[in-house]
């Protein structure tokens, strides 16, 4: 019996009949497994050297699985490197599903978190966003959390890698210093997906699902800024429906660059200097 077959049997209680490799995903290999009892499950295998990644994702999925919000795949079991969930079908994006995504995200964010930076219950403090380490430690306010646990750690890595020079680094650091005034409305911490780029919104032809979360407590505009970063189908419909349920604070569009700064710095460190230039542009936009 192979490793995947053994994991699936232990997690589901049913033997694997067939295993099919799936494409996509930077943070691990994925497979669709047909079981002897007729079910089809999804198995994600993380690379070595990512301690706590499976535990963090499983805790995030459980935390996001609130009624009447955006659905997430059910966790069927896990090991240190493997996560087994229900398998999702695929289909084209639709405007109706996008609107329900917006309404569901508004309800999800409103369920709240214990603090900015707080991990999901049972989730590790040292988690991951894709292949990048990401610390989740409760902070008294969002500016401190976002500056110290998100932007500045990756700013230092980008500088050390020669991706950002002194002037550019100073610009990004100025955003961190001014976060209390750039934050907008002082809102309670929201329950965030945490890595909500368009690739982590799964369309099945009827509904949308949230996958591959990096859940934590934070500012709700962060999830929405991530959706806009790499483009999301029917994004205007998503945002309009969101605001029907829970209107965003005045001036939120001007703050998009603030919330995109962290993922752009992460991408710069992982994938190269083009993203560093985008991060500098986002910092300039944030400062006006």
Describe the structure.
It is a single chain. This protein has 288 residues and is an alpha+beta fold. The protein has 2 domains: 3-86, 2-Layer Sandwich (Phosphorylase Kinase, domain 1), CATH 3.30.200.20; 95-287, Aminoglycoside phosphotransferase (APH), C-terminal lobe (Aminoglycoside 3'-phosphotransferase, Chain: A, domain 2, Alpha-Beta Complex), CATH 3.90.1200.10. It is built from 10 helices and 11 strands. The chain has a 5-stranded antiparallel beta sheet. Strands 6-7 form a two-stranded antiparallel sheet. The longest helix is centred in the middle third of the chain and has 19 residues, at 142-160. The protein is globular, with a radius of gyration of 19 Å. InterPro entries: Fructo-/Ketosamine-3-kinase (IPR016477), Kinase-like_dom_sf (IPR011009). Belongs to the fructosamine kinase family.
What's the name of the CATH homologous superfamily of the largest domain?
Aminoglycoside phosphotransferase (APH), C-terminal lobe
The CATH architecture of the largest domain is Alpha-Beta Complex
Elements, N to C (H/E): HEEEHEEHEEHHHEEEEHHHH
Number of strands: 11
Low-confidence stretches: none
Side by side, the strands of the main sheet go: 1-2-3-5-4
Shape field: globular
Task: Give the tally of structural domains.
Answer: 2
Q: What structural class is derived from the secondary structure elements?
A: alpha+beta
């Amino acid at each position: 019996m192979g490793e995947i077959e053994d994991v699936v049997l232990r997690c589901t209680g049913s033997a694997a009949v067939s295993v099919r490799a799936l494409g996509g995903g930077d943070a691990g290999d994925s497979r669709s497994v047909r079981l002897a009892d007729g079910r089809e499950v999804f198995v994600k295998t993380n690379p070595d050297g990512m301690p706590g990644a499976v535990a963090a994702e499983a805790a995030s999925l459980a935390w996001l699985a609130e009624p009447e919000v955006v659905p997430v795949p059910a966790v069927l079991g896990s090991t240190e490197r493997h996560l087994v969930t229900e398998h999702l079908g695929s289909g084209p994006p639709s405007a109706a599903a996008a609107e329900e995504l917006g309404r569901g995200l508004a309800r999800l964010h409103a369920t709240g978190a214990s603090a900015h930076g707080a991990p999901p219950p049972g989730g590790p403090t040292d988690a991951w966003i894709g292949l990048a380490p990401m610390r989740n430690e409760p902070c008294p306010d969002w500016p401190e959390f976002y500056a110290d646990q998100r932007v500045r750690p990756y700013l230092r890595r980008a500088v050390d890698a020669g991706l950002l020079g002194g002037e550019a680094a100073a610009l990004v650091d100025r955003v961190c210093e001014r976060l209390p005034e750039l934050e907008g409305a002082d809102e309670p911490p929201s329950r965030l997906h945490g890595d909500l780029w368009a690739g982590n919104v799964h369309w099945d032809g009827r509904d949308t699902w949230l996958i591959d979360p990096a859940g934590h407590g934070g500012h709700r505009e962060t999830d929405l800024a991530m959706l806009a970063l790499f483009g999301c189908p029917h994004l205007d419909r998503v945002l309009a429906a969101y605001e029907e349920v829970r209107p965003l604070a005045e001036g939120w569009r001007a703050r998009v660059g603030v919330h995109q700064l962290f993922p752009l710095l992460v991408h710069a460190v992982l994938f190269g200097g083009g993203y560093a230039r985008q991060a500098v542009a986002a910092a300039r936009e944030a400062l006006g």
